[in-house]
Write a structure and sequence with these properties.
mainly beta
Length: about 140
């Protein structure tokens, strides 16, 4: 799901939001894995996802100021360093990881994406790597 902004300076909004000013709740984002079989769309909200549980899973904190903003791309994008989960075994409840989502400090959904291939961690040492990349497009939602 792409973040869609009007043509009011998407590049500047990316720089400010991911590296400076933040919501009232704090300065960091949280990267979570989801285990329900949905395909996120622009109207998806944070409560739509079932967060992974068990198997050593812990959500990741994405710290303020650590995003790389590439304004050479059009639309610009914000990239965070690769995040790695090493599982201790199978997940509890829903066992399949379908994707990831990012919420801000106030719990508002910022970005979500399905993985190119689902993952079912089953044994100690199974690894999942995610490199969060978000784009800000110039234009209006369709």
């Amino acid at each position: 799901m792409a973040l869609i902004l009007s043509d009011l300076g998407a590049d500047e909004i990316l720089k400010v939001y991911w590296n400076n000013a933040r919501p009232v709740g704090g300065n960091n984002h949280t990267l979570k894995l989801f285990t329900n079989n949905i395909t996120p769309v622009d109207t998806t909200v944070a409560g739509s996802f079932v967060e992974a549980a068990g198997g050593g899973y812990v959500a990741k904190t994405l710290t303020n100021g650590s995003w790389t903003i590439n304004t050479a791309n059009d639309p610009s994008d914000a990239t965070y360093a690769q995040q790695t989960w090493t599982f201790t075994g199978a997940l509890t409840g829903n066992a399949i990881i379908y994707g990831y989502y990012i919420v801000d400090a106030d719990g508002t959904l910022i970005h979500s994406e399905r993985l190119s291939a689902n993952m079912t961690p089953a044994t100690n040492g199974d690894v999942l790597n995610v490199t969060p990349v978000m784009q800000a497009s110039k234009g209006t939602p369709s």
